[in-house]
Amino acid sequence: MNAEDMVNHPPHYTQGDIECIDAIKAATKGLNGFEGYCTGNAIKYLWRWKYKSGVEDLKKADWYIRKLISGHLNDNSRS
Length: 79
Prior knowledge:
Blueprint lengths: L2 H6 L11 H8 L5 H16 L6 H23 L2
């Protein structure tokens, strides 16, 4: 694999029939700011965990999910 492939289509993001970036784009449509950022990052780490950094990626996904939950709870407490 050449260096360009690792930038544009790394194997840990191209598993299955859809690339991770396309899934993130679809999953975060309609989300804004912090909500979209945390959701996209959680998806990224869940997508690649088996092919790149294992449990470390699962912990990173968990971190973003917890931030998303915390932000959502804080937003709802202000309503």
